[in-house]
Amino acid sequence: MSATSKTEAGSFAAILASIRPKSDVELADELRGVIEAVKDTGKPGSLIFRVDVKLVNPGGSEVIISDKITAKRPERNREGSIAYTDSANNLSRSDPRSTPLFEEDAHDMPAYDHATGEVKDLD
């Protein structure tokens, strides 16, 4: 590369803005999104900008420039939940095999006998 072409080239940002308009704006938006997710989760993220260049015709001076922006935003940890299963494999937040601690909780159980106040075994 000659000294003349080196000075004419300008910065990468100027080249990007003239050859791939709006890519710089998209990169800035994606960077803000990655930063927000990193601050929210405390985990690292990344932003990758890839530029591919290929000749239109071998020996020619025309090139095709294409780019790809890939943002990797960290995700929050998703905590698991405890659930219980009954004999038909239905899920419940409360253990269907245990007796409720309070009388008023027993009234909603399917095995509660309103006549006697007794909770019958579900199995």
Estimate what percentage of residues fall within beta strands.
15-25%
Q: Quick one: overall form?
A: rod-shaped
Number of helices: 4
How many domain units? 2
Q: State the end-to-end distance.
A: 83 Å
The biggest beta sheet, please?
2 strands, antiparallel
In the predicted model, the low-confidence regions spanning at least 5 consecutive residues are: none
Give the neighbour order of strands across the main sheet.
Answer: 1-2
Structural class: alpha+beta
How much helicity do the residues have?
Answer: 25-40%
Mean of pLDDT: 81
Number of strands: 6
Topology pattern, helix = H, strand = E? HHHEEEEHEE
Would you mind describing this structure in some detail?
The chain has 123 residues and is α+β, with helices and mostly antiparallel strands. It folds into two domains: 7-72, no CATH class; 82-123, no CATH class. It has four helices and six strands, in the order αααββββαββ. The protein has helices at 3-9, 12-19, 23-41, 103-106; strands at residues 46-55, 63-72, 84-85, 91-92, 112-113, 118-119. A two-stranded antiparallel sheet has the order 1-2. The protein has a two-stranded antiparallel ribbon with strand order 3-4. Strands 5-6 form a two-stranded antiparallel sheet. A hairpin with a 7-residue loop joins strand 1 and strand 2 (63-72). The chain is rod-shaped and about 95 Å long. It starts with a helix and ends with a strand. The mean pLDDT is 81.
